[in-house]
Fold this sequence. Notes:
37% of the residues lie in helices and 11% in strands.
Amino acid sequence: xxxxxxxxxxxxxxxxCLGTMMFGAMGNPDHDDSIQIIHRAxxxxxxxxxxxxxxxxxxSEVIVGKALKGRRDDVVLASKVHYPMGGDPNHGxxxxxxxxxxxxxxxxxxxxxxxxxxxxxxxxxxxDVEETLSALSDLVRGGKVRAIGASTFPASEIVEAQWVAxxxxxxxxxxxxxxxxxxxxxxxxxxxxVCQRYGMGTLVWSPLGQGLLTGRYRKGRQTDTHRSGGxxxxxxxxxxxxxxxxxxxxxxxxGLPMTHLAMAFAIAHPGVTSAIIGPRxxxxxxxxxxGAGVTLDDEILxxxxxxxxxxxxxxxxxxxxxxxxxxxxxxxxxxxAERSAA
Length: 342
């Protein structure tokens, strides 16, 4: 497996990053089986592992910690902080208070004394970015974290964080972890160019379009159901399904499974360092590993640009970050009394 430099950190990582969200109660509750999957990925040359405290309420980190016993020094280990970990209002977010507590919990679960990459899982409008960067800088200087990054930040907030770091003499975000796939290409418009401008590495999540690009879900033929009892919204998004219907014959003509086409697309962009795979079973991992050497030629990439235009999303990204200015109605409307007075 050919390795790539993670931005300007000097850290060499595999083009596939093993995401561990599916290890634990959220996906595969069998610890031994999950550990075997992690070992299989490492044996195949993947040296980049990404987890988060919120994945199965810390269980994913516990599994990863078990799996890396005796192999920790050979792995670039990343985790994330932000989402609530319990009912306490201060057990979540991007405050110094929580970051300093959360990192200790993460290190304990992972059975390690340091993280190679510690990422802020989402922006937090309630916290000054200087507060967050200051806490992360102390972790770097204290040796508990080697590099820091962000996840699913808008381009404007990435730029703001870079400027704050420079002006205040703080550690800066070295990486960004945004969503990216054939059906979700909006980061090509601003996020990826900004990351390239600041020398940031990128590890993109959901390169399979949250499962849509496996080819299992077809227009008018959705027979599988979600465990919760219903079809996930993005599996019934007609705009995305229209794209899938055009991708399937393209993949067949190229002699590629849909998963291989999708993964090869994700790592073809010069601004992308690694694409995160999130297998739940050994079979899923093996399928993805067999496509690790696939390279798409210009003809196929040109056709993909026609089907799913650069810089656009085929449909809404159902689990991505929506700024409060969009999600909160009171940020979009003047008070009723003020509107009526006008």
